[in-house]
Structure formats: structure tokens, C-alpha cells
Amino acid sequence: MGTCYRVLMWEKCALPENQLEDWAAQRRELLARMRDAGIKGSRGLLGQLEKELYSLTVKKIELPLTQTPRAAFSFARAEALAQALKADSAVLAYRLGTASAEVLMELQGDDDMASAQTRWQEATPGMEWCSTPIVQAMSAAEGAAWQEACRCSEEEADTPEYTSGDFHHVTVLLNEAVEALQPAEGKVLVDATLGGGGHTERLLQAGAEVWGIDQDPAARAAAKARLAAYGDRLHVIAGNFRNAVEMLRKRGVQQVDGLLADIGISSPQVDCAERGFSFLHEGPLDMRMNPSAPRSAADIVNTAPEAEIADILWQYGEERASRAIARRIVQERAKAPITTTTQLASIIAAVLPRKGKQHPATRSFQALRIAVNDELGALDELLQSGLSLLKSGGRFAVITFHSLEDRAVKRYFEHVCKPEIDRPEWPAPRPNPAYAARQVYRKPLTPAEAELTANPRSRSAKLRVIEKL
Ligand SMILES: C[S@@+](CC[C@H](N)C(=O)[O-])C[C@H]1O[C@@H](n2cnc3c(N)ncnc32)[C@H](O)[C@@H]1O
Fold first, then answer.
1. Probe ligand 1: pick from 154, 173, 266, max atoms within 8 Å of CB?
2. What is the distance in A from the centroid of ligand 1 to the CA of 147?
3. Which residue out of 172, 220, 242, 289 has the highest number of ligand 1 atoms within 8 Å of its CB and is therefore the one to mutate?
4. With contact defined as beta carbons under 8 Å apart, do 10 and 131 qualify?
């Protein structure tokens, strides 16, 4: 890595103009004094002024930016920016704040800072960036340290204030998933959705070593308490399974014998009013599985444009009245912010009278939850990277609970299990470069009658399993 730059930019509305002017005036003065000190060769004074400049920027810009309310940053724009940064070859790492972005970049060839900023600006239409981002040159070593810090912040630190409490989740397709993973002594397995530890417990009982990942601190606390007896055969990782490969490699785990993902939310997440997932319980409109994630359902409902809300309801909830509901949400939020689950449920119910058993808000709540947690995006990243973690003969098992998830798993598994691909325009089928696995079951496994009776929440579960060649 050569010289790199840390660029800090923010949305114009995030910092008041007068604060910026104040900062710019003091900065100009400090820079003039630094120039004089440089001319006189006064290195001590120069160092002191550099420090003053740094703390001025922290005080006037960086700290206020960390205090910008969450609702300030539209999630669609943040997504668009993240996509653009990910795709930009000059970008080594980045961190998104509520209304700001810090980017570590290395300029190559003809590329320059202004063109890079233009690219990011173009990727976020409708977003007004500050006109003078803060650019700080970094040595290769500083850059590498910053990159490492970014990587670590993708994982959350474990949150000590969460206790195991009363965490009750009935594990779905327990026997089927455990059988599919063939746990045994000497095997190393990953449970990418540790939850209350129901699947993991059986894997540990069979003698395997398990790496359990969960983004919910309450789930991790519950699983740790429940599985304490297994000592160091269980390793709990706080983070999103979309980063499973990096998180495990960082801990020295290159390949494992099996990977399980029991996608979706756990019963305690739905049942705890404070988490804001359910319209049946009055609670804050939150829905974040990871409580320190940047955007909640309230952020989307109160700040996203009407068309974006309608798209979310349609795409993730297949809600036919998506447009009418989005329109009503926008009308209501103009009168007062929508902050609770029951407030949103009654807004939806006013648009969509109840028909049959299902509450009219069911589909919209599902859609918002999927959007808040970027559930399909995370699943997609896990699917794309999961096979690379497996040894030959290792199994990849995924349990899903609705058709959008199942469709993604089905398509991906079918794709990697096809030795050849054919297209009408090709004279003959061609080898499939992604071919790497075989289907373990011809059809997905679903809960048996006894499980359905004992746990009605399992009714839509499907388990698909592939084995790496
Ligand atoms: C259905 S529960 C798993 C239950 C678990 N198999 C058991 O038997 O107790 C799903 C868990 O996955 C977690 N989860 C969902 N999406 C995640 C993601 N992208 N990264 C990490 N954890 C995730 C949720 O927080 C939840 O605790």
C-alpha cells in the first residue's frame, strides 16, 4: 500500500453553516501560523499547531457528526453510497456514519480526489455533500491500521449489558438440520444464526466444535448461558453472518465441516415489545436485530420518500396496497412522527380493512423488518461466500421461513449443483464454472405433523441442504 488518504465527507444538512464558517476561519488562521512557523523552521511550534488543527476539526466537525440523529441519513442513499464505495477500486475501506462517510482511498494512475468524489456524488443523486471534505494523508502503516479498525468495526463488540434473561425460542427442524450436518467429535461446524443455541446444543452434544454467530446481543447472551457447560468447544462471534468468512478467517478458521443458517427472527425478538417487531405489542418502532445498527423501522417510516416505502412494502411484503399504505404513512407523518408499532399498525388498518384471520399490518411489518435488517442482502452474501468455507464433503444447510428467502436459496443451490449450463443461443451446453456441490435432498424438508402441532410458528419452514464436492 502506498500513500493513502482518509476522506471525511458529510451531508450538508448535518452541520449548521455557522459552525462550519467558524471552523473554516479558525482553520485558516492556524494554517497561516503553521506556514510562518515552517518558514522560521520552528518545528516545535509547528507540531503544536498541527495538534491544535486536529483537535479543532474533531471538536467542530467529527464530534458533532457522530451526534447527528439517526433519522438524518436516508437509508436508500446510504445504501447507494455503500454500493458505490464497494465497487470503487480506489476505495480500500469505508465507514458510514448517520450523515457522514469516512473513506480510506489510494489514488492510482490518473485518478484524483476530485474525480473520486464526483463518482460518489453521482452514485447518490439527491444527496447534497459538503463542498470541502476533510482529506488527511496517511502513511502505509497508518492506512493499514485504519483498514484493520474498519474490519473490526464490522463486527460488534459484545455488549455486556445484555443478560440471558428469559429467552425462549423453540428450535425448528431440529432433528432434520442436525442429521443433515452429521456432527461428530473432531468436526468443526458453524451455526451462522446461533439464536438461543437450540441447534448448536445438539451439535455440541454430538461432540463437534461450534462457531456460533449472531448479531443480536440478547441471543448471544442466552446461548452462552445455556451452553456454558460445553466450555471452549463453543465460540460465540458477535456480528452479521454476511461477514462470516472474514470473521472466521481472522480467528484462524479457514475451512469447516458444515454451515447452518436458520434464517429470520427468533421468538423472543418478536415477543419482546421493546424490540418493536410486532404490531400486537405496543413498543418503539425499531425492528433491528442488531440494536446498534444504524437505521430502525422508524427511520424508514419517518424519513424515506413515499415511493421507497411503497417499494419496500411491495418487494418484501408482496403487499398489494403498498402505494396506498405509503401515501397514508406520508400524510400521517406530516402531522406527527410515527414512533410506535401500534401507531403504524392502526395507520395500515385504516387503509386496509381486516379480511379473514390475518391482521392487515402483517405483510407491511414483515417487509419493514426485512428492509431494516437487509435480510435478503445478508442472505445473498452468505450464500455466495458459504461454500468457500467448506471442506470437500462439507454440508451447507439453510432453513428459511418465507418464499423470498427460499427462492434465493433454491436458485443459488440449484445453480452451484449444475455441472453444465445451457442457453437457447448456444449450440451445446457449457461447463458451469460455479459447479461445486450436490443436492443432499431432492426436495426441501419441511416440519413433520408433530412439529407443526407442537409449534405452529414452524409452519412455513423449509430446509435445503447441499454438499460440497
Ligand atoms: C431463527 S433464530 C435462530 C434460532 C436458533 N437456531 C435456535 O435454535 O435457537 C435466528 C437468529 O439469527 C440471527 N440473525 C438473523 N440474521 C442474521 C444475520 N444476518 N447475521 C447474524 N445473525 C442473524 C437473529 O438475531 C436470530 O437470533
1. 266
2. 28
3. 289
4. no
The CA 168 to ligand 1 mean position distance, Å, reads 13
Q: Which domains does the chain have, with CATH numbers?
A: 4-153 (3.30.70), 174-267+375-468 (3.40.50.150), 294-372 (1.10.150.170)
Q: In whole angstroms, give the CA distance from residue 299 to residue 313.
A: 15
Query: If you count them, how many residues does the chain have?
Result: 469
Nearest CA to ligand 1 atom 15: 264
3-state secondary structure of 370: helix
What tens digit of pLDDT does each residue of 260-311 get? 999 989 888 888 888 999 988 889 999 999 988 888 999 999 999 999 999 9
* CA 371 to centroid of ligand 1, rounded, Å: 16
Given a contact cutoff of 8 angstroms between Cβ atoms, the answer to whether 210 and 228 are in contact is: no
The answer to whether the beta carbons of residues 416 and 435 sit under 8 Å apart is yes
Q: Which residues line ligand 1 (CB under 6 A)?
A: 169, 171, 193, 195-199, 213-216, 219, 240-242, 262, 264-266, 289, 378
Nearest to 22 by CA among 57, 62, 65: 57
Beta strand ranges found along 97-229 (DSSP E) = 100-105, 134-138, 188-191, 209-214
Rounded Cα–Cα distance for residues 443 and 441 (Å) = 5
Q: What's the rounded Cα separation, in Å, for the pair 269 and 280? A: 13
Atom of ligand 1 nearest to the CA of 223: 9
Distance 203 CA to ligand 1 centre (A): 16
- Supply the residue whose CA is at minimum distance from atom 20 of ligand 1: 240
Give residue for cell 479558525. 26
Q: Hey, which of 214, 277, 375, 409 would you mutate to test ligand 1's pocket, going by the most ligand atoms within 8 Å of its Cβ?
A: 214
pLDDT tens for each residue of 54-95: 778 878 887 777 666 544 555 456 667 777 887 888 888 887
Atom index in ligand 1 nearest the CA of residue 201 equals: 8
Residues 6+ apart with CB under 8 A from 425: none
Q: Which residues contact 384 (CB under 8 A, 6 or more apart)?
A: 412
Instruction: Please check whether residue 226 is in contact with residue 164, taking contact to mean a CB–CB distance below 8 angstroms.
Output: yes
Q: Which residues pair with 10 in a beta bridge?
A: 100
Retrieve residue 409's grid coordinates.
436459496
pLDDT tens digit sequence for 93-138 = 887 766 778 888 888 777 788 888 888 888 887 778 888 788 888 8
d(CA 106, CA 195): 40
Decide: helix, strand or coil at residue 164: coil
CB neighbour list of residue 77: distance below 8 Å, 6 or more residues apart:
124, 126, 127
Of 106, 89, 120, 114, which Cα lies nearest the Cα of 10?
120
